[in-house]
UniProtKB/TrEMBL annotation:
Protein name, entry field: non-specific protein-tyrosine kinase
Entry GO MF terms: ATP binding; identical protein binding; non-membrane spanning protein tyrosine kinase activity
Domain Tyrosine-protein kinase G-rich: 442-516
Family of the protein in this entry: Belongs to the etk/wzc family.
Amino acid sequence: MQHEFVIEQVEPDQENEFFKKLGGQFLILWPWLIASIVVCVALSYLYLKYQTPEYRIRASILIQDDKNSTANVGILEEFGLLKGTSSVDNEAEIFKSYALMKDVVVNNQLFIKYYYSGQLKATELYLNRPITMRYVNPNSDSSINYGEYLVAFDAKDINKFTVTVLDKKYVGKFGEIVHLPTGDIIINTSDAFVKWRKEEPVTVFALPVNRSVAEYMSRLGVAIPNKQVSIISLSLKEIIPQKGEIILNSLINTYLQANVNDANQIADSTIRFIDDRLQLVFKELSGIEKDIEGFKKENRLTDITEQSRLLLENTSDYSKQLTEKEVQLAVIEALEEFLISSKNETRVVPSSLVMQDPVFISLIQRYNEVQLVRDKMLMSTTETHPSVQTINEQLLNLRGELLSSIASVKRGVQIGVNELRKRTGAIESQVSKVPGKERIWLDFSRQQAIKQELYLFLLKKREETAISKSSTLANARVIDAAKADDFPFKPNRKSFLLLGFVLGLAIPFAFYYIKELLNSKVSSSKDIKNYTSAPILAEIGHNGNDEEVVALAARSLISEQFRSLRTNVKFLMANEDEKVILITSSMGGEGKSFLSINLAATLALTDKKVILLELDLRKPRITDILKLRRIGISNYLVDSNANWKELLQFYGADNKFDILSSGPLPPNPAELLMLPKMSALVKTLKEHYDYVVIDSAPVGLVTDAEVLAVLADVTLYVVRHAFTHKQQINWLNKLYLKKTLPKLNIIINDVQLKKSGYSYEGYGYAYGYGLYGEKNS
């Protein structure tokens, strides 16, 4: 069996191929990469420049577990409401409460904001605001008390301003009431007004209080960083650092004051109770003193007799004891009335003042502790919450126990009063023997002494309670006052600039990837290999010159590629009788005529006789390219007397190779090519020439190339880079598998490295068997 020279492709290393392709893409895209990075980073910088920075303000507070707070937690745990929690958790929830934040918003007028409108954005003003606004008598319809107020200043009179609201203008003076449809307001100047440019107006936004409270609650962060210590970390997000520090410090101070107020509720209740009793006793004492004064004037008495003085001295001890018991009984009755009254159900019970019964004192302390826990829970929940309902039931039970204890104590005190009254009865019988006027005066004196003793006792207890209240401290201590971070946390400058750089880097590659994904044209040899197993014989680069014929004598890349193609073709045509080369393609414009001319010229450089047949009779290009006469093969095939030698034309000064042009366009090119005269002509030319190069019509459009295939020894199928459709390679593969075209090899034409990052693949050449025939066993 005869051996054949064939070409074996040596596939490049896949990893090297990947890096070569990546490097090629980078070489193509690097100007776009630089431009994209510059644009994206610049846009990121502009975004950061006009973005309002946001700072985080931090503070920390220590919760001191005093006896009261510990008792409160114990009570809740006894109810089964706070299992596993601590007083720190409770206080953290209070910091998150709506009521606490509402006090801060209202006290600091945070629902009113001031803005200065610049060219690109509005900037909020706080410490540097030139004015302050407040409502005097808000409209009853609270929904219209809020809105936008544009305050413009009078350049001529610094005491005047114009406020625009609801598209109407109103003139006013600083410090005076301005009547507006949204309510009466007063606008005052601040310290920053002196430096403010009067031509710049200020926009004032008044927001609903509940909306402002919700806004600041969403910005507030409350955390317990370590469960082992009683420290709460507070944070607040704010665009103005100084404002954030003021708000967070105000929140802490409001919390501390509320804590003190809770601790002072019992003292306040006791003081109110004592004040009520003082008014009553003072009124009674004043009445008695007036009666004594009137009695003395009427009877002209200046002093009592010696007998009366002795009686008073004898009864002083009993009177003092009786007075104390009566005072205690009065306090008990007042406490009983306090507990029975429904309006006092949610108030703490005043201290027992004079009652020393340990059970009763314990009940009062327990009742007040539960009441304070209930008040704290209501700061973060509602009356209908199950926990609150449970506490209400407990308070009801404790109130019943208190009333029972009071009744028991009251009976004991009443017995003591009755006993003292009996003992004083004997002395009073002696008093009855005293003359009538002195006896009446003695009775007045005794009542006066009792009321004075009670009044002095109440005054003493009030002072003791007031002193105790003034010494009350909050069960918390500020560790770190509010302080803003040095740099804003939002937007993150480094992250945005890095994002701009990454986007600038990714956009060109993404664009290239999408472009390649949507690209239906052949962009590399890999695209061809994905669709066909036909071998790739050579790759011809882009011809940058206008000349269709390459200067093959030069040492350019494209001339070297044609020399390589010539070598490969010689390997394919190893047998001496193989001389005919058929060149075709899928469609017009793929460069088969260009390839035919330059391959013929390259073969002629080796001192071989070469003839080029222009057999694309439908759309001949070689005649126009080489400016040939329009006589040729069509004339020869239709004229039985024509001589092909007379139709020959030549290319080059030294007649490098011969050419038979297509001649006039025939109406039936396929039928002409099927004439026996055509096959006879090719047979004759093989006898006279070393190589016969046939430029055929595209095989994907007409059957001319298939007709000529029987005359050819080798087929070169031209695929143009970035021009031939990938789907057309399927048609090529069918021809290859059916062996319709002899020894079909692919030529990739017009490869443009700078356009697409295409990299040439290396081919090794070796001898082998059986690519187009049977293997030699």
